[in-house]
Design goal:
This protein has two domains: 137 residues, no CATH class; 228 residues, Spore Coat Polysaccharide Biosynthesis Protein SpsA, Chain A (Alpha-Beta Complex). The protein is built from 14 helices and twelve strands. 51% of the residues lie in helices and 11% in strands. The protein is globular and about 70 Å long.
């Protein structure tokens, strides 16, 4: 099946009209700020610096996306054995759709094994998965996770059990609430080329009319975009466990999951550990590489999920902790500029100019990204994101103050202490 790649990432910048307008507007904005600051004293300096900080943050993420989009892909023509591993807990309503999408892959069935590890579900997840395995002999392997040791996070324990009981040379991971395109395995394996050891990709919820659900889609979209941008900078940061691939040998080489004692981090910390070994990590391109998340969470579930994701950030490399702090600061700077503009109308020219320039940078960045992953985003959604995501980015870190978070029917402490086990201690995984 042909894969949808075919991108011309620098095309937007090659257009003479767009290029001239870009540089003319930049020169106009800088000259306007220089003259304006001289007329407004110290208040003008503060607002001007805040506005420029907003622009600088946008430029940082745009440069990452440009660098990623200009990367030359190294595609593989080989067809190795593949094991898709899913950790499922209390997913009776969604697991059938997930497994059906994995059964409908274009990748040769004799080379593909789907392994579902039931993580001590208290509903009928195990029964539903077992029924599907019985209908498709040899296609689905259903396991029950053993009791989880205190030195391992529950999901990592289940995933390690699946890795131990499968034999694919390539390991693919998705979540039990996800639906994958029919060409997903083929697309991920092909992009896991000779020079690429690990791959992550977009995982986006279904688009809905409801405003809250749309905002959740935009937030998830921004996370995928930031993931690709970080990879463009040559140092992976975040990743999604619902759309992840690496070689079994690579997993053995890094000694298993990074910080296995944590309830989170099976994706981002492991990807970072792979990159720390000097191995190449990339973000998947093409519409067949994007995974759909079937779950529409409640506001409370979003809050707990955000707290869980942020619980691993203290283990990120220092430069990414500083970069994310700078992005949060840019959101705060945007709010400061907006308040200053509303309370002092004479400040609006420089603020409006910087906001417009930031919107232009974001528009170019989003345009590049959606063309790479085969997605679409409306002008209304883009405008909504420009206004609301900076506010969200400022208040989201406050969720780290939660003493713990609930996930899949379990409550986890925000801080986990304990020595990290070795690979053999994690689950006896071997080559």
């Amino acid at each position: 099946m042909p894969l949808t790649y075919g991108w011309t990432p620098a095309k937007d910048f090659r257009s003479p009209c767009i290029s001239r307008l870009f540089w003319l507007y930049l020169a106009f904005m800088i000259g306007n700020i220089y003259n304006w600051v001289g007329l407004h004293g110290s208040l003008g300096q503060i607002v001007a610096l805040a506005a420029l900080w907003v622009v600088a943050a946008g430029a940082f993420w745009l440069i990452g996306i440009v660098r990623w989009s200009l990367r030359k892909g190294t595609f593989s023509t080989e067809q190795p054995t593949v094991s898709v591993i899913i950790s499922a807990r209390n997913e009776t309503k969604l697991i059938r759709n997930c497994l059906e999408s994995l059964l409908n892959q274009t990748y040769p069935a004799q080379l593909l094994t789907v392994c579902l590890v039931d993580d001590h579900s208290t509903d009928d997840t195990l029964r539903v998965a077992g029924d599907m395995a019985a209908l498709h002999p040899g296609r689905i392997q259903v396991l029950s996770a053993p009791p989880c040791p205190s030195s391992l996070g529950p999901k990592k324990s289940a995933l390690l059990y699946g890795i131990q009981h499968t034999h694919g040379n390539v390991l693919l991971f998705t979540d039990a609430d996800c639906v994958v395109p029919s060409g997903w395995v083929e697309a991920m394996v092909r992009q896991l080329g000779p020079e690429t050891e690990a791959l992550t990709g977009a995982m986006l919820p279904a688009k809905c009319v409801n405003l809250g659900d749309r905002l959740f889609w935009l937030e998830r979209f921004s996370v995928s975009l930031a993931t690709a941008s970080a990879i463009g900078w040559g140092s992976p940061a975040s990743a999604t466990g619902g759309n992840l691939a690496y070689r079994r040998q690579t997993f053995l080489q890094i000694g298993g999951f990074a910080h296995p004692e944590l309830p989170a981090g099976d994706d981002d910390l492991t990807i970072q550990a792979i990159a720390a070994q000097g191995l190449r990590v990339n973000f998947a391109r093409g519409s067949e590489s994007a995974v759909s998340d079937s779950r529409i969470p409640s506001l409370q579930q979003v809050a707990h999920a955000s707290a869980r994701h942020q619980s691993t950030m203290k283990f990120y490399p220092l430069h990414w902790r500083l970069a994310y702090a700078a992005s949060i600061a840019s959101g705060a700077a945007a709010l400061l500029c907006l308040i200053a503009m509303l309370t002092t109308p004479s400040l609006w020219p420089v603020v409006a100019a910087c906001f417009a320039f930031r919107a232009l940078l974001d528009f170019i960045m989003v345009r590049l990204f959606v063309r790479q992953i085969g997605e679409q985003i409306s002008l209304l959604d883009f405008t909504t994101a420009e206004f609301l995501l900076p506010v969200y980015s400022v208040f989201r870190p406050l969720l780290k103050l939660m003493p713990g978070f609930a996930w899949r029917g379990r409550v986890h402490a925000a801080t986990v202490r304990g020595a990290a086990p070795t690979l053999s201690q994690q689950s006896g995984v071997s080559g």
